[in-house]
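#struct-pred
JK: can someone run the complex with S-adenosylmethionine? inputs below
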Amino acid sequence: MPLNENNWFTEVFEDRTAFSVKYSEKLFDQNSDYQSVQIYDTEAVGRVLILNGCFMLTEKDAFIYHEMLVHPAMQFIPNVKRVLIIGGGDGGAVTEAVKYPFVESVILCEIDPLVVQACREFLPTISAGLDDPRVKVIHGDGAAFVRDTEKRFDLVLVDSTDPVGPAKALFEVPFYQSVKRVLGGTGAAVFQTESPLFMEGVFTTSVKLLREVFGQNRAHPYFATIPCYPGGLWSFTFCSELHNPRESSTVRQAGPAEPVRYYDPGMRQAVFSAPVFVRRMLA
Ligand code: SAM
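RT: done, structure tokens with the ligand placed:
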């Protein structure tokens, strides 16, 4: 069935594949200094956030991404009090992080204030955590923030767009080294590391560089399916000089105060078990 232009939004990926959703209403459409920011209301997946023509989240599957970015680390490294989130202007990762009463502070460093403004207005459930009194939102380049800060963090979450434009620096060694520095040898960082299916080069290079910076056995990719992202199969990479999620004897943190819908600690060994083709890719 041909897509009728006037009520379908389509993301074309590398001019070879596309993902489309039928929308009922365009709720927001403005350009910032960094990107175009659009929010649509759709029939199949609820409201969707689009940046520069790329799906960032849909209300239907955002919980998978945000839970998988936050909970695997939050639920097994001990004493997480100070959290830094780079990117993540939709507030979804913040909303998951503040579910834990032992978290004392969350800094969100998002370069584009328009993303936060749009998501506060049109994605209130996903962005709700931004109003938590422990949260401080700053607007600036995450790479510069971690390069220059004297603060220390127990957990750093990197929830960036693809490695183009301002996000390019978030996939490079100087940024990885700065993140390692602010963790002070005891914390952990999780990076969204793209699709091993549709972005094999970015994925393998990111894991290789993270292993060079944190240590060969200190950067562990894990996986989840995010239907609105190119290729569906998505990766995150957990990095820590101290904690290894593949060891069975690691500390288990108390679960979140509020219910989750996707991840629980019983899944940890499974999510960190890479599919055979990925193991071959990273060998
Ligand atoms: N989950 C999505 C994904 O995996 O593609 C990312 C969602 S979040 C909306 C991505 C955010 O990263 C955007 O709001 C973008 O403005 C922000 N961003 C990109 N480069 C950045 C940088 N250098 N510093 C801080 N934020 C940045």
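RT: quick notes.
The longest helix spans residues 200-214.
The pocket of S-adenosylmethionine is lined by residues 34, 51, 56, 65, 86-90, 109-112, 115, 141-143, 159-161, 166-167, 169-170, 192 (CB under 6 Å).
JK: thanks, will look after standup
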